[in-house]
Design goal:
single chain; alpha+beta; 3 domains; 9-stranded mixed β-sheet; 15 helices; 25 strands; 19% strand
Length: 708
């Protein structure tokens, strides 16, 4: 059997096993059980029923690096020097009493995002950590569910904040797309020293299920995940997890608690930041026949009778589980944790490493944009644009996103995407000062300073919608117009995208244009993957089929009149073309019909037609009224949702501004008190010195004695 066939067979088998494991986890309904319980902790028996097992703790301190008790899949960042501590130390806050419980965890976790802050929001999108060599991880905090189909743990109550709450809104994924590792940050209102928290189990299950859904990692026997749980603003803890196919359970290992209490960053805080900036390591690839995953029959009834979940198991037991997938003759991944050079790496000829960021990299998520193309009178403005580029491996991806309201069974609002694959780009040019009749509309939407990217494609962009919907039917007129514009744009090979100048630098756009026009770019795999869209249900390419009809009953003014009735007047007869043949002979002709009888018949016919027309008009008006009421209710619901979303966004902005202002005022007061205290101490010391000198001078006596 050829090597290619062996690899393909392993990948198919891995995909089948991942799907089987995912189905087993789904049947347990772990997330539903966790989110409905009011208790913050998970007992050992309950953990076992969730198909989870907790092994011995992870040793996170430097003295344990490279040992069997350290993390086998994540290597911490190098120790911080004085310059790094100075750069990242600002913003540490002690909020004090009086805040909502979940605010404490969110505020403390925010400090650890300092390395991902931009150095200069206007002039450059270089990150703080890039100054010190960069990190192996990329951070995602917007549109996580829509972008990759992952629903992070969330259990919060607007009116019952005294209940146990937890949340997660920050995801980390490796720059190296071949790494199956994943991590996220969790905020929790409970504090636990010994027991595992529900939020930690919830987060581990959510991340592992997401990795099992992805076919990209079917050739990996282990898909490790890492959770950083902030327990209010007091403590934090690391949880490492992976699904062990040999025993058919999720393996959980936790660190000691990191102490974050105090007015300034503690040593534990710096150690935790090093772990958040870790490097994903470990031998997770299937390499040989002996390293393959077990068959479905082998994991249907795993031998779990001697294994019971405990807070800590023996080191030898842990090592045996961790090495269940270690190929014969390969090094122990636990020992390899501190040796990155020996860890399994992807083939750099096809997928270069992305641990280091480049000055040409672009990361523009959900930027407001406007699009114009030939034959379009007004620019399409209600869209956002994502642009990503990794210069290290010559990959990029561009997509437009628009929100439309679709008819049931679709959600109330659904995102449609327009994928611009780099392989389809013929040329793309940058225009800093575009001349267009629609410039005023663009400036109102994006501001005065904009960049314009002119695209010329070999093939049109792909319009992507939910795979679960056979027909894309808009609910209202606005959504119908948006869908019509998107369909029209999906048939064009030449169009322009306008972006605010502040979201990305000119140099990076010029570099992108040069690379794309030179046909040197390939699509980013995970960005082009449609299977993870729409909550994991997947997306599909919307072909240029006839658009769904959204016809409503015609209005009264639009009703066309019926055929004219024949005129009836006194003394005139109802005449029409006769089909009777004239008699050839005969003298007894039929006498003419009585006009009164004809008029009576006509009146009867007119009355019936009038009643029928009246009933029909009444029905039409009733339907029209019902449709108007339904449309108004839908519009009110949409406006209510929009206002509520806007209010929540503004409230969040006000909270962030308030937190920043409080921090600034505290810092100002601190320095003011410090200056006044220094002046007071100096004055007191000077006064004391003067009093001592004066006392010595006033009380000093000289005695002379002469011996005669």
């Amino acid at each position: 059997m050829s090597q290619a066939n062996v690899i393909q067979r392993k990948k198919v088998k891995g995909t089948t096993m991942s799907q089987h494991q995912l189905n087993k986890l789904r049947e347990l309904h772990i997330e539903e059980t966790l989110i409905t319980s009011p208790l913050p902790f998970v007992e050992a028996e309950e953990l076992d029923s969730m198909s989870c097992i907790q092994l011995e703790d992870i040793e996170v301190d430097d003295k344990h690096a490279g040992t069997a008790s350290a993390s086998p899949f994540f290597k911490p960042f190098r120790p911080f020097d004085h310059e790094m501590r100075e750069s990242f130390s600002w913003g540490w806050l002690d909020l004090g009493e009086g805040q909502a419980p979940r605010v404490y965890a969110k505020c403390k976790a925010g400090w650890f995002m300092g390395p991902w802050q931009e150095v200069d929001l206007l002039e450059s999108d270089e990150l703080e950590i890039d100054i010190f060599g960069g990190t192996a991880w990329r951070r995602m905090r917007c549109n996580i569910r829509e972008t990759c189909g992952l629903t992070l743990p969330y259990r919060c109550f607007l009116d019952y904040s005294y209940l146990h709450e937890y949340f997660s809104d920050i995801l980390f994924f490796p720059k190296d797309e071949e790494k199956p590792h994943l991590a996220c940050i969790i905020g929790d209102t409970a504090i636990s020293t010994d027991n595992i928290l529900r939020s930690e189990v919830h987060g581990a299950v959510a991340l592992i299920k997401h990795q099992l859904r992805s076919e990209r990692f079917s050739n990996h026997h282990t898909k490790p995940v890492m959770l950083y749980t902030f327990q209010r603003d007091q403590y934090a803890r690391i949880t490492q997890a992976h699904y062990d196919a040999k025993i058919g359970k999720i393996v959980l290992r936790q660190s000691r608690q990191f102490d974050l209490r105090g007015p300034k960053p503690t040593e534990d805080a710096w150690l935790l930041m090093r772990w958040i900036l870790n490097t994903p390591v470990g031998d997770t690839l299937i390499k040989s026949e002996g390293d393959e995953l077990p068959t479905i029959a082998e994991v249907e009834e795993p031998a779990l009778s001697p294994l019971r979940p405990t807070a800590a198991l023996s080191a030898s037991h842990c090592s045996s589980l961790s090495n269940a997938h270690t190929p014969e003759g390969s090094r122990d991944p636990l020992v390899m944790a501190d040796d990155v050079s020996t860890a399994s790496e992807p083939d750099t000829t096809t997928t270069p490493r992305q641990e280091t960021s480049s000055s040409d990299d672009i990361h523009v998520p959900a930027a407001p944009a406007s699009v114009t193309w030939n034959g379009q009178a007004q620019p399409l403005s209600d869209v956002t644009c994502d642009i990503r580029r990794y210069a290290s491996n010559n990959t990029a991806f561009i997509k437009l996103r628009a929100t439309v309201a679709l008819k049931a069974p679709a959600p109330a609002k659904t995102n449609l995407f327009l994928f611009v694959y780099p392989e389809r780009i013929r040329t793309v040019t940058l225009d800093e000062t575009p001349e267009s009749r629609s410039q005023e509309i663009v400036k109102k939407k994006l501001g005065q300073n904009t960049y314009c990217l002119h695209f010329t494609l070999d093939r049109p962009a792909a319009l992507i919608g939910p795979a679960s919907l056979e027909n894309i039917a808009p609910k209202n007129k606005g959504s119908a117009e948006m869908l019509h514009h998107l369909r029209s744009l999906a048939q064009e090979t030449s169009f322009s995208i306008y972006l605010p100048a502040k979201v990305v630098s000119k140099a990076r756009l010029l570099s992108l244009c040069e690379a794309a026009s030179g046909h040197n770019l390939a699509s980013i795999t995970w960005q082009a993957d449609m299977t993870c869209l729409y909550g994991g249900k997947g997306g599909r390419v919307i072909e240029n089929a006839p658009e769904a009809s959204t016809v409503n009953p015609p209005s009264y003014d639009e009703l066309e009149p019926g055929p004219p009735l024949p005129p009836i007047s006194q003394g005139s007869s109802f005449q029409g073309p006769s089909k009777k043949r004239r008699r050839e002979s005969g003298n007894s002709d039929t006498p003419p019909a009585d006009l009164s009888v004809v008029e009576a018949m006509c009146r009867k016919l007119m009355g019936g037609m009038k009643a029928e027309l009246k009933l029909d008009m009444s029905n039409q008006l009733q339907k029209l009224e019902d449709n108007i009421v339904v449309r108004l209710e839908q519009r009110l619901a949409e406006e209510s949702a929009r206002i509520e979303e806007h209010f929540e966004q503004k409230l969040l902005e006000v909270r962030e501004e308030t937190t920043d202002e409080i921090g600034t005022r505290i810092e100002d007061e601190y320095y003011g008190v410090r200056v006044r205290l220094e002046d007071f101490v100096k004055d007191e010391v000077q006064d004391a010195e003067e009093r001592i000198v004066h006392h010595i001078e006033s009380s000093a006596t000289i005695s002379l004695q002469f011996n005669t």
